[in-house]
Every structure is written in structure tokens, then in C-alpha cells.
Amino acid sequence: MKAARNLTSALADALVVLAAAIILVPIGWIALAAFKTNVDVFQLKFFFEPTLANFARILESPYEVHRKLFNSAAVALTVVLVSIPLATFAAYSLSRFKLVGARLMLVSILATQFVPAVTIVIPFFLMFRAVGMLDTLGALILIHTAIVMPYAVWMIKGFIDGIPMETEEAALVDGSTRMQVIRNVVLPMAAPGIITASIFSFILSWNEFMFALIITRREAVTLPVGLALFNDESGVQWHLLSATSLLIMVPMIVLALSVQRHFVRGMTMGAVR
Length: 273
Prior knowledge:
two-stranded antiparallel sheet, MetI-like fold
């Protein structure tokens, strides 16, 4: 039995190492390639003379990655600032008030997550073209908000459902208004869920590709769409592509590390509930 347990543990450890390698090796390759020349990037070298020329080149025309970085950051941050407060109030209403058709609304909100993006991208394109909003950050903000809102509502509602009603009733009895109850009781207790929803909303908006590809042309192009610029008549510019990919990944890594405690707590509490 002991030998069997040791074998099982060894296999489990081997699978974890294999999974980590599958995930980390491509990321490591991109990180190394971002500092290689166009010649070195095609050679399996772990020791080479690093260069920052790739990062300088992607800031120049025709790439101008700094503009696309600004567009991605502006859209993602605005989406979080708009969608999370709206999702919090919507989740609170669905959780605490007896609304007519509340279950149907919840099912409808969830159903929007199963609609393939490719089936609705053309209607969005036609709509924004009709109102003159093609190739604008406003169009992307509206679309991304519509994408992240259903997920945010469902996640935050799960956390609010877990807050005992007695705590709110006690605050109301003490003379607090409904808004004061939300600010002083609900928001602090649901903070892990709200932070987790904010992280996922930012990531979804930051990485969104299809709508940004169809809706934008030049002015509002985001980083994921900008990656297509590195495939020209001379082939794929892997060194420049890797440098840009690193710029896309670094904010996500920094964000995940900075809010890791809240993120893990939020995911764990959501799973228990």
C-alpha cells in the first residue's frame, strides 16, 4: 500500500511538472525571443547578447505599439469602471429584492454567454457604422461592457447571496439607509467577489480580439489586433512579435500578482458557495 501511494504521488508530481512545462515553456520562449535579434530568434540559444532594439522598433511606424497599448488600457480600465458598479447594483437587486421575472432575467443574462461572438459581430458592425462609431474607443467600450456584464453580475450575485440578511437588517434598524447598507455592509463583505469579477472583466477586455478586429481600422486598434501587423512580405517578424506579446502579458502578470490574495480568496469562496 505504501509503495502504491508513493507511486501515485510520484505520478501526480510528474503530471504537475509536465503541465507547468507545457504552460511555462512557450512563455519562456517568448520572453527570450523578445530580446533576440532577427537572426538569433531562429536559433535555440539560451545564451545570447540581449538587445532592446526590438522594443524601440515596435514603437516606430508602422507598428506604433504604444498607441495600441494606450487603446487597450483605456478600453479595459473604462470597462471595469463602468461595468463593475452596474453589475454590483444589478446583482444586489437580483439577490435582495423580489423582482417579477427575476429568474427569467438571470437565465437570460447567463444565456448571452453562450452566443458565439461570430454570430453577432456583423450586426454590431452595421449598427456602429450607421451611427458613425466605427473605429472608436467608445464602440469597443460598449461591446466589451456587454461582454463582461453577464459574468460580473452572476459572480457578484453569488457573493451577495452568501451575506447574511441579518447584518443588513441590523443596519437598517439602526437607521442606515439602503445606500449606506450597501456601502458599509455589502461592499466590504463582497469585496473578494467584486475584485475577482474586476480582474476577469479586465482580462476579458484586454484580450478581446474578434470585435476589435472587425470594429477598428486605424485609430482604435488594440494590442491583440496589432499583433497581425508583424506578418509582412518578408514573413513573420518573430522578434518584434515576441516583444509585443511580452507587453501584452506583463500587465496581466503584474495584476495577478498584486491582487493574488483577493483573487484566490474570491475564487475559493465562490466555489464553496
